[in-house]
Amino acid sequence: MTYYSYPNDEVHNLSFTPGEGSDGVKMSNAAGKVARQKYCIRELKKLIKPGSTVYTILRNVSRDGMSRQIDTVIVRKGKIQNITQLVGDATYTRIGKHGSLVVGGYGMDMGFAVTYDLGCFMWPKGTRKAHGRRNGSPDHGGGYTFRQAWL
């Protein structure tokens, strides 16, 4: 996989070489990973706002129960939109062979963990406006930016 940057500020990780006439510029792996994360966070901020609900779908559980594959979707303009790839690239979470986020661990709500991590990566210093209340005080923290629900 190789990262390519395009004039419209898109960054993609491709398993093939773009054809002739493509205006993509090849990037180093390290620079490409960071640029792809920034691009995904920008795109996610266009799609979901603080206080929105991110829906999670459990797709697979490993035999030993130590990892899960989870999809993330949102409802936008009355339609379901899969944001799993954007979330994976924004949070540096591996995408498994089924196209879902591979989340390790057990003993807690892993859908909540994915949503919490997403908020922390999107707003590492918190949001300007409070998006809810936690412990009786206005909440600006990035981790609790979104609501989460299982489908």
Number of domain modules: 2
Radius of gyration: 17 Å
Computed structural class: alpha+beta
Instruction: Specify the helix fraction band.
Output: 25-40%
Number of strands: 10
Distance between the termini: 32 Å
Mind explaining what this structure looks like?
This protein is an alpha+beta fold and 151 residues long. The chain has two domains: 1-38, no CATH class; 48-150, no CATH class. Helices cover 26% and strands 32% of the residues. The strands form three sheets. Strands 4, 5, 6, 7 and 10 form a five-stranded mixed sheet that branches. Strands 2-1-3 form a three-stranded antiparallel sheet, covered by helices on one side. Strand 1 (2-5) and strand 2 form a beta hairpin. Helix 1 crosses helix 2 (84-90). The longest helix is centred in the first third of the chain and has 19 residues, at 29-47. The protein is globular and about 55 Å long. The mean pLDDT is 90.
Describe the secondary-structure layout.
Layout (H helix, E strand, L loop, with lengths): L1 E4 L5 E4 L10 E3 L1 H19 L5 E9 L5 E10 L2 E4 L1 H7 L10 E4 L5 H13 L9 E3 L2 E3 L7 E4 L1
Parallel strand pairs: 4-10
Antiparallel strand pairs: 1-2, 1-3, 4-5, 5-6, 5-7, 8-9
Give a short overview.
With 151 residues, the protein is of the alpha+beta class. The chain has helices at 29-47, 84-90, 110-122, and strands at residues 2-5, 11-14, 25-27, 53-61, 67-76, 79-82, 101-104, 132-134, 137-139, 147-150.
